[in-house]
């Protein structure tokens, strides 16, 4: 059994609480791997380094949850996981705040590392979320997708 | 003798095929709304037909679908391609490449 928690919410993430939730599921957990995406203080907008104050995260309600569950299901088929959390924030998120948390717990480290990496790479291309950045003047800019994200995800399919 | 043909033939008179369309990110911004109910005319059989029809609805639609390679499609919350068939009651979404995480 793998305790799975998928969520999408405008609420701030409490990373400590999420890590505790991952490790408290079973006594045979020997490894936890986690990824946290954070709003950095700049974005490349039209190939120009642009200081920003916040991101606005939009999603496709229904499909975003569905895709996160599908990605989690696939990860659990490939790796022996004990617990799994994928939680994504939506709405306005200020610089320095967390956007997304993915955590995986397993008996040994390789499953935890690989599953976490896999889930993040798939989420980046398959879960319908979009970023809009607010520059320091308050102007909104939609963020362009990165080719690197698709390359990273495709590596798992080889 | 009275002719009830028009009244009795409910299928042709009242049956209207509709889809629900969602738009996200800059596509929503161009079109000026996030969702709409859209009538499927007889000639709309797939996504390409639908886009061609939508582009008749105004400049915002033309701009949104100008660079079709940058537009991702979902039918009933599954990724789809431009020549995939659509039918009455489908939920269709148009959005840019994903940038979450």
Describe, in plain words, how this protein is organized in 3D.
The complex is a heterodimer of chains A (158) and B (101). Chain A is 33% helix and 39% strand. Chain A has four helices and nine strands; from the N terminus they run βαβββαβββαββα. The mean pLDDT of chain A is 96. Chain B is an alpha+beta fold. Chain B is built from five helices and five strands. The longest helix of chain B is centred in the middle third of the chain and has 8 residues. The chains are: A alpha+beta (158), B alpha+beta (101).
Q: Low-confidence spans of chain B: pLDDT under 50, at least 5 residues?
A: 1-10
> What proportion of the residues of chain A form beta strands (DSSP E)?
35-45%
Work out the largest interface and the residue count of each chain: A-B, 28 and 16 residues
Q: How would you classify the helix and strand content of chain A by structural class?
A: alpha+beta
Distance between the termini of chain B: 70 Å
User: What structural class do the secondary elements of chain B suggest?
Assistant: alpha+beta
In short:
The complex is a heterodimer of chains A (158) and B (101). Chain A has 158 residues and is an alpha+beta fold.
What layout of secondary structure does this protein have?
The complex is a heterodimer of chains A (158) and B (101).
Chain A: E1 3-9, H1 15-23, E2 31-38, E3 42-45, E4 48-59, H2 63-78, E5 83-89, E6 91-94, E7 98-106, H3 109-126, E8 129-135, E9 140-142, H4 147-155
Parallel strand pairs in A: 1-5
Antiparallel strand pairs in A: 2-7, 3-4, 4-6, 4-8, 5-7, 8-9
Chain B: H1 5-8, H2 10-14, E1 18-23, H3 25-31, E2 35-39, H4 47-54, H5 59-64, E3 72-75, E4 78-80, E5 91-95
Parallel strand pairs in B: 1-5
Antiparallel strand pairs in B: 1-2, 3-4, 3-5
